[in-house]
Inverse folding.
């Protein structure tokens, strides 16, 4: 392989000569510069050194002794460090140059693009101009690194990262390595690619993949709904013109809850002796 073909990969080269601004490395046929800013090593002529080759902001091939977290042909989880609308997202791979994951490799809707701090599973690719770009792992790649779940994992709380999302649902891989699908009915909002989410396993398929729900468990949801009602009561000095006889539309407009959820939460508060109803109003005790 030529040095150009090693772009995006690591290679061992020999120090051919030394200048005040760096080291010229060679494979015996071609040379590449290892700038002093790209190494903390003191090298001598004839010494062999392992470097990563990439193209700098001026389009020149250059070397660094800093090993990236991912190379061509390998995959790794890397963080999003910047987002440029209409262009894509930039990823940190451990070297001085951030790598672009272009918009063509991202969802059509920018609202579900990864944001700064999100993690994506990618490899590197080199285009015809010898520039390095990121490519997200395919579903098959995720399948290859995943681990099968067992019946003992049913109803288990899990967390992990979204690697693909669509209107019908989202796909994630959990910290345990389970490959999971989140149906659109099991999420409140569509999560971003690269977003860390928490949920629970609601089904385990024969192949060991899982279905996951991001919705809160019933008791957790009930507690949140009850707290929402109490907060509204407190904002109105302990009285509100809503009860279990109120219209569903009015309840949804005010609390964002279905009437059945509102009634369950209100019933919980009444059972606990924290509120009471009178003539279509609810009062805090």
């Amino acid at each position: 392989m030529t040095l150009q073909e090693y772009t995006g990969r690591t290679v061992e080269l020999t120090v051919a000569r030394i200048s005040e601004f760096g080291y010229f490395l060679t494979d015996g046929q071609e040379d590449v510069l290892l700038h002093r800013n790209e190494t903390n090593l003191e090298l001598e002529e004839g010494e062999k050194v392992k470097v990563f080759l990439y193209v700098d902001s001026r389009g020149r091939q250059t070397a660094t002794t800093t090993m990236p977290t991912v190379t061509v042909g390998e995959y790794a989880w890397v963080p999003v460090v910047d987002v440029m609308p209409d262009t894509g997202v930039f990823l940190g791979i451990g070297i001085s140059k951030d790598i672009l994951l272009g918009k063509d490799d991202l969802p059509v809707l920018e609202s579900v693009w990864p944001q700064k701090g999100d993690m994506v599973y990618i490899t590197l690719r080199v285009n015809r101009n010898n520039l390095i770009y990121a490519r997200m792992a395919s579903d098959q790649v995720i399948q290859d690194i995943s681990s099968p779940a067992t019946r003992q994992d049913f109803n288990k709380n899990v967390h992990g990262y979204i690697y693909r999302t669509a209107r019908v649902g989202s796909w994630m891989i959990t910290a345990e390595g389970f490959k999971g699908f989140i149906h659109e009915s099991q999420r409140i909002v569509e999560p971003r690619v690269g977003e860390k989410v928490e949920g629970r396993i609601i089904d385990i398929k024969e192949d060991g993949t899982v279905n996951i729900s991001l919705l809160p468990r019933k008791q957790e949801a009930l507690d949140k709904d009850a707290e929402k009602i109490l907060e509204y009561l407190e904002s109105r000095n302990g009285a509100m013109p809503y009860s279990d006889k109120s219209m569903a539309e009015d309840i949804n407009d005010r609390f964002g809850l279905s009437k059945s959820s509102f009634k369950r939460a209100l019933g919980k508060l009444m059972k606990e002796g924290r509120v009471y109803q009178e003539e279509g109003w609810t009062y805090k005790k």
In short: Residues 218-284 form a domain with the Arc Repressor Mutant, subunit A fold (CATH 1.10.10.10).
